[in-house]
## 1
Amino acid sequence: MNSLRQLGFCLLLASLELAHVEVRAETGEQIAKSGNAAGAPACITCHGSAGQGQGAAGFPRLAGMNADYLAAQLQGFQDGTRTNPIMGAVAKLISSADAKALTAYYAAISVIDATGDAAASNSSVAAGEALAKNGAWKNGVPACAQCHGATGHGVGAAFPQIAGQSVVYLSNQLQAWKTGTRKNDPMGLMHGIALKLSVADVNAVAAYYARLPSSSASNGTTKP
Ligand code: HEC
Ligand code: HEC
């Protein structure tokens, strides 16, 4: 009887401990640096110690991006409208409260590497700039700047900053829209555009945006 009582007491303590763990809110910074209780890995292992990303690996910069845009992307990875074997698995371990904390944390970080992707090749940058600023009307491609802003710093929550992301990440995204592994864009806007871009167009426009400095001052809220 006594030991049963003890067991009961232990169980009670254990459930209190569990309840304690559940109510303890982890801050965005804590999760980014150490992961969360559900087993999500630390974001910094892939996205860099200050959210600057790892260009060559295709891990995007998160610092200074619009919080609502980032949250919509996590949602996309969770509901399968954006698929990626690595980030999809991570996103499924993030609760909506975690997503809120994490995206607010990253949006508020200042971009430390504002010089862009130095690895972008020079050769196609001019062609990329022309496409970005003027589009290619004969192929039905609008100017990227119309939606992403004159300097690629994005507009509001809907049109993300693309300046300063790496060549690898930018081309991966355009490719993902072509093949349909990413289909979370409003009204299929990017899918329609990506389908009209040739391989040379993708390489050129990615090289151009990768070399533009990114901005955290805008946080995607500047006017085009
Ligand atoms: C093991 C590596 C890895 C870890 C850890 C990781 N990510 Fe990612 N993340 C990626 C990759 C790869 C992509 C790009 C996927 C693609 O190409 O579609 C990505 C993309 C994203 C995006 C989309 C960005 C955009 O501009 O659309 C967000 C948001 C994001 N990650 C948030 C997080 C958060 C928050 C954490 C920590 C809880 C995290 N990631 C941990 C690899 C990782
Ligand atoms: C009509 C408006 C519009 C135009 C023009 C446009 N985009 Fe986009 N773009 C969007 C929207 C909206 C999103 C966000 C999609 C989402 O919510 O998933 C986006 C997202 C992107 C992303 C993903 C960024 C990230 O963080 O993952 C890339 C890369 C991109 N666009 C490149 C381009 C390029 C290159 C061009 C020009 C060839 C272009 N866009 C023209 C509307 C546009």
## 2
Amino acid sequence: MFDRIAARYDLLNRLLSLGRDGAWRRALVRALDLHAGDRMLDVAVGTADVALQVLRAHPQVVAVGIDPALAMLRLGAAKLGNRHPAGGWHLVGGDASGLPFNTGVFAGVTIAFGIRNVPDRLAALAEMARVTRPGGRVGVLELQVPDHGPLQPLARAWVRWVVPLAGRVLSSADEYRYLRRSMEAFPSPREFSSLMAQAGLTRVTARPLEAGAVRLYVGEVPR
Ligand SMILES: C[S@@+](CC[C@H](N)C(=O)[O-])C[C@H]1O[C@@H](n2cnc3c(N)ncnc32)[C@H](O)[C@@H]1O
């Protein structure tokens, strides 16, 4: 599915987030507390926007990305190669529920707008925790239709009408209808935080961004 929308994916992201998606990914990267020499992993890396933010904020960190959609990875590799021709990044094909990395090799692991698409979320979170070193953080960024608050009616209308319409006009109707359905079906912040705890993460926080339309979840791997 993501291979089919890859070409227009970045454009739709900018439009549908009103240009805010970069700020959300920057908040995710800040939450990892990375340092020079660290290696981080971005799961569901897509067109590599999180990896680009990592390398911009921390030129001495190695960013590794994994995703099963090869068309997304190709676009990501082109962007990374353009801006970071000397390297400091690696992209690999693969699935969140079985990460092809040794235990505890990353200082931090992220997934941005990706966990919603993974059928076995607990397995994916447990894998992300497994490959993170003790004391390292796992950060999850996800869209959410807020169930109350000042932005709730606007966010609901946006997801019901604007997202499918923009998808139909600029990309692919089915895929952006799926985005709406998957957002509406995503667990509440309390339920998702509890899933992170079940995956072995501690000190789990769920910070609302944009009045709750986006959530930044962070958990720590016990020492
Ligand atoms: C909405 S995009 C997010 C891409 C990127 N993280 C970003 O911030 O723009 C969702 C990504 O999840 C990937 N994905 C879907 N199922 C997956 C799975 N089982 N394991 C890992 N990634 C998956 C898709 O291929 C796609 O690139």
